[in-house]
Amino acid sequence: MARPRIKDVARHAGVSEKTVSNVINDYVHVSDRTRRVVREAIDHLGYRVNLAGRHLRKGRTGIIALVVPELDVPYFAELARHVIREAEQLSLTVLIHQSGADREHELAALAGFGSDFVDGIILSPLALTADDVTDRAGAPPTVLLGELLEEGADHVAIDNERAAREATEHLIGLGCRTVFAVGGREAPGLGTAEARTRGYLAALAGAGIAHHPEALLPVDDFRMPDGARAVARALSSGARPDALLCLNDQLALGALRALHEHGLRVPEDVAVIGFDDVEGGRFSVPTLSTVSPDKAAVARVAVQLLHRRIEEAARSPLTPDAGNPGIQSPQDRVVAHRLVLRESTEGPDAG
Fold first, then answer.
1. Strand partners, 118
2. Are strands 337-340 and 289-293 parallel, antiparallel or unpaired?
3. How many Cβ atoms sit within 10 Å of the Cβ of residue 264?
């Protein structure tokens, strides 16, 4: 059976093809009755809008790119699901690209992959510099995620420093005084790990607890084996922390394994908190306390910001300045987070 066309909808509804087009495109000057009749005809015939044609007529592809360091990291997988869901509400298709935290891959993404294939980019960078972002003449609209870069483009993140401070303060409030940071980085920097380390150190200072460099457990990567190795090394060297702030849930899940293998109970001997609230932490034994970023809100804000920039770019090729009020300067959006307390800090009766 042939796919129904717009003229078939018009014939079934008893209106012109132009009226059907006006309804499809939400043109305001259409009566409620006519709009209802046309939509009933669309539903009856199973007509589907040709989104590709619509986008091409506007000089766009209808495709945006989500560029993340690693696709198999649960946080990014969950974030991608939310981004796709938000993009669908705006009739956008999402191309997902893995950068591997490689500078050349991130630069290629920032430039739109050297083509007009995508209308805009949501990018979580790990290797770029501020100059890379500010010097982007002719590049597609971009929204940045995370802590690394906050200038030159719209930016969406949680307040990682504040979140880490709150998590550490909770551990201190439980009576813990030897709090180690798994994945901590004391060196100055703009990354997420550095921001979370600053929050951890601020909480210790606020409680009058001395910081010892050996309490920062560095990792090569932020995966479960790295967390397990870092904690195992510390325990084998004689360290006896009574709490661990892990800079993501993957490190925390690895840490739980290392603690178990060394005969330490969680939370009775060592309390553990992670970051990101990934699904695996809700099913670990014990279940994992964590800082939960509002991933749905991160996706929603990022997609909406990007869509706005795409619309602005279509109206004007000019860059943001005082003489072009139609294009706003880059925005920095902070999304909510909350501390989710489970068995790894609160015991088996935790909610």
1. none
2. antiparallel
3. 17
